[in-house]
Amino acid sequence: MKIYLNLKEELKKEPFKELEFNIPMNELDLPQEYIVKEGQSVSVKLHLLKDKDGYVITAIFNTSILMHCDRCLTEFSQKFNISESILFTKKHPKHQELSEAELYSEYLEDEEKFDVYDFIREEILVNTPMKLLCNEDCKGLCPYCGADKNATQCDCEEKIRRKLSPFAKLESLKS
Q1: Could you tell me which of 57, 45, 2 has the C-alpha nearest to residue 26?
Q2: Residue 57's pLDDT band (boundaries 50, 70, 90)?
Q3: Exposed/middle/buried for 49, CB within 10 Å: 0-12, 13-18, 19+?
Q4: Closest C-alpha to 56, from 111, 13, 137, 100
Q5: Residue 31: how many CB atoms within 10 A of its CB?
Q6: pLDDT at 159
Q7: What is the rounded distance in angstroms from the CA atom of residue 92 to the CA atom of residue 76?
Q8: What is d(CA 98, CA 7) in angstroms, rounded to the nearest whole number?
Q9: Distance from C-alpha of 23 to C-alpha of 43, rounded to nearest angstrom
Q10: Closest CA to 88 of 130, 131, 60, 119
Q11: What is the pLDDT of residue 129?
Q12: Highest mean pLDDT range out of 60-74, 93-107, 157-171?
């Protein structure tokens, strides 16, 4: 069940509010590359602040999601330590070029129906590395035999290099 906040009502009496939610990961509708365990959830702290141009929302959460390494295809736990502040404003930018402050702002269509799930989902997607690696030194898979180079050593590349070498014909003269 999605959580919608009425920002206008939440910040009517006071300009600052702190909320905590426990969101089931399977309800965030993450792409299939994100392997979510049954019952896994993320604990989220939201800081809401009324600003002259809109609302500043800060999300703070830590979670781990199982993913596959892009080099060796093994499953590993990707950690997300997120603390992100975004200005949600009702004003549209007037010019084409965005200022530094506008890079951290989003247009808010309806201040009475702010979707917390979409906000958290977007933060996870934006903070996911482009190249997912189980560790920085991952050697990947052998392109010839498919062996995981992190677990075993193979000499396929060396054999192929020897075969394709211009000096490979000298090997036949040996016998």
Answers
A1: 2
A2: confident
A3: middle
A4: 111
A5: 8
A6: 80
A7: 41
A8: 25
A9: 6
A10: 119
A11: 94
A12: 60-74
Tokens of 29: 């509708």
Torsions phi, psi for 107 (to 5 deg): -80, 130
Please give the structure tokens belonging to residue 138. 């991952």
At residue 106, does pLDDT exceed 80? no
Query: Among all chains, which residue has been given the structure tokens 């906000």?
Result: 119
- Tokens for 103, please give them: 């890079």
For residue 58, count CB atoms less than 10 angstroms from its CB and return exposed for 0-12, middle for 13-18, buried for 19 or more.
Answer: middle
Q: Which residues contact 25 (CB under 8 A, 6 or more apart)?
A: 36, 37, 40, 41, 42, 63, 65
Does residue 93 register a pLDDT over 90?
no
Task: Identify the residue whose tokens are 């830590």.
Answer: 62
Q: Which residues contact 79 (CB under 8 A, 6 or more apart)?
A: 62, 63, 64
